[in-house]
Specification:
This protein has 18 helices and six strands. It has helices spanning 2-14, 16-21, 26-45, 58-67, 72-88, 92-117, 123-133, 147-157, 161-169, 178-185, 187-198, 212-223, 228-251, 256-267, 292-295, 319-325, 327-334, 405-419; strands spanning 279-283, 300-303, 344-348, 362-369, 381-387, 398-400. It has 420 residues and is of the alpha/beta class. Helix 5 crosses helix 11, helix 9 crosses helix 12 and helix 16 (319-325) packs across helix 17 (327-334). The two termini are 47 Å apart.
């Protein structure tokens, strides 16, 4: 079906999450691409009447399992069904062949990991111990069991949630070809994946990225049924909306930490008389800013740590939690002497009232636009200050906003309308 293929291409290529996070969540993107490849092999082999190649996709599943163990959740239902059908038809040689090849892929990857780490390393086992058995993911936030359904999927799909609901709830008439029967079989892996991931308290939208190809296979048949003129209009709206959304998230939203890191790399040594010997303290939530990947210079940097509690110490507290519980006490305990104080400080503007007394010895060098939607510990601007006794003329209280103005104007109009 040409219309179905066209919609699948549009959905896969122009989805905002793929455009925005493709270069950010690299391992999830690799998993996503591998899922698309495995799906292509799986689909092609469904036409095999003799079922000799019905498990040809299994080695790719094994590779995905090693790279990202949770990918097995999507393929477990298909593997179980296909193996059961082969067992029922007594195709033991076919099962043994593809299971052996899959095991060979897994063993090869384990050998490569073990050689590089210097000891026996089974990545999926370590993944299970850290993320499931020890449940260390809770250090990075928790959500209720229904989060993927109530927030994750709606945000990931946007308006596409409506054709998905139609596809899941509508009673389709009798189908005459393989393409039209495809949506039915892709419901199970999506549901199984959602149920398993929902059992873990730590949830992230990127964990659903590899589910997108399955979801699009459910959505595309519904969209392809509309009149051609309506389909073209929907395609244009989808492409323009998703591209604009991806551009806004990439060029405007939360860009301040990147601009600040680049500024430190290019001008940090010029802000104080110490030059390249300058020391920087970042008072921000964990993983807020890029570090040497963007700074590219020899500047000593200290940041609030969120080291996982690998020892399962019940009294353990992350340094960031200790700081935000009482910022002034933390600063006093760590920098009691004036000579111990850092030369530069980087922080979100929402922290200013809390550490106002500590900042009396510092002057503002630069303020960077960060986001139009500040929330909690993340402010709307990133501020860099230098010690007054060390500051040079380059520390001139400049304001830097590298985002395209058109996006800011559009968002400000929407915010004004919402207030009305």
């Amino acid at each position: 079906d040409a219309k179905l293929r066209r919609w699948l291409a549009v959905l896969l290529i122009f989805n905002w999450h793929t455009l925005y996070s493709g270069s950010r969540t690299l391992i999830n993107t690799v998993e996503y691409c591998l899922t698309c490849l495995t799906l292509a092999v799986y689909q092609n082999n469904q036409k095999d009447v003799d079922m000799k190649k019905s498990l040809q996709y299994l080695p790719l599943v094994g590779l995905g399992f090693i790279l990202r163990p949770t990918s097995a959740l999507l393929w477990a239902p298909f593997c179980a069904i296909d193996v059961f059908n082969l067992l029922r038809k007594k195709r033991f040689k076919t099962i043994l062949k593809w299971l052996s090849l899959s095991l060979a892929v897994v063993v090869l990857c384990v050998i490569i990991d073990s050689v590089f780490y210097g000891s026996v390393t089974i990545t999926p086992l370590n993944f299970f111990i850290v993320n499931v058995y020890n449940n260390l993911g809770v250090n990075y936030g928790t959500h209720p069991w229904h989060w993927y359904l109530s927030a994750g999927l709606p945000a990931l799909l946007g308006p596409l949630i409506f054709p998905l609901v139609v596809s899941l709830t509508a009673r389709a008439p009798a189908r005459s070809n393989l393409a039209s029967r495809e949506p039915d079989r892709f419901i199970l892996p999506v549901v199984f994946n959602l149920v398993c991931l929902s059992c873990l308290p730590h949830k992230e939208m990127r964990f659903l990225q590899s589910s997108l190809p399955f979801l699009f296979l459910l959505i595309a048949p519904t969209l392809s049924k509309y009149f051609t003129s309506l389909q073209r209009m929907l395609e244009v709206i989808f492409v323009v909306g998703n591209v604009c959304g991806a551009l806004f998230l990439s060029l405007v939203h939360q860009r301040g930490v990147v601009d600040a890191a680049l500024f430190i790399g290019s001008s940090g040594a010029e802000l104080t008389i110490k030059g390249e010997g300058v020391e920087l303290l970042q008072l921000m939530p964990c993983h807020s800013t890029p570090l040497y990947s963007h700074i590219h210079t020899n500047i000593s940097t200290r940041f609030l740590e969120c080291t996982p509690n690998l020892q399962n110490d019940e009294s353990y507290r992350e340094e960031a939690d200790i700081f935000y519980a009482d910022p002034e006490s933390w600063l006093q305990n760590n920098f009691s002497q004036d000579s111990e104080k850092p030369d530069l400080i980087m922080y979100f503007d929402v922290l200013t009232p809390t550490i106002k007394r500590y900042l009396e010895d510092y002057t503002v060098c630069a303020t960077f636009f960060h986001t139009m939607f500040p929330e909690g510990k993340v402010g709307g601007h990133v501020v860099i200050r230098a010690k007054k006794s060390l500051a040079t003329l380059a520390c001139d209280n400049r304001f830097i906003d590298g985002s395209p103005r058109i996006f800011r104007d559009i968002v400000n109009i929407f915010k004004a309308v919402l207030k009305i």
